[in-house]
Amino acid sequence: MECRVKWIEGGMSFLAETGSNHVVMMDGPPEAGGRNLAPRPMELLLAGTGGCTAFDVVSILKKGRHAVQGCEVSLQAERAETDPKVFTRIHFHFRVSGTGLKPEVVERAIALSKEKYCSASIMLGKTAEITHDFEIIAV
Predict the structure, then answer these.
(1) Which of 32, 62, 127, 132 has the highest count of CB atoms within 10 angstroms of its CB?
(2) Which residue segments constitute the domains of the chain, with CATH numbers given?
(3) Over the stretch 27-69, which tens digit does the pLDDT of each residue have?
(4) Long-range Cβ contact pairs of 107-110 (< 8 A, separation 24 or more)
């Protein structure tokens, strides 16, 4: 995996080009010299973690032939007050929708992501307390 990040002169904007040839912009707040045009790097880290675990949960449920039709995860994070301002606590709230989904099946998919598959949340779990809850929406 690779990525190239380039500073866009004149502020605190950065352009990242991923190894899969996708581009994402990052920026800082005005008080740090940014123009608030794009997410902060730590916001992208949090978003990537949500994407990683949601990907796992959907994949696990589909492989188990469960009728999953939607998955949304909301993340709430707290950071240390002093540098380095690492994440110290992250709570994941999953909203999984489908037909006939059983709580124990969804709970197991989330646990597998947390304990085995989601590289991002497992890595962040080295500095942050990670908690999860979920709700099932019948469709």
Answers:
(1) 132
(2) 3-32 (no CATH), 41-138 (3.30.300.20)
(3) 999 999 999 999 999 999 999 999 999 999 999 999 999 999 9
(4) 107/134, 108/60, 109/56, 109/57, 109/60, 109/61, 109/64, 110/53, 110/57, 110/134
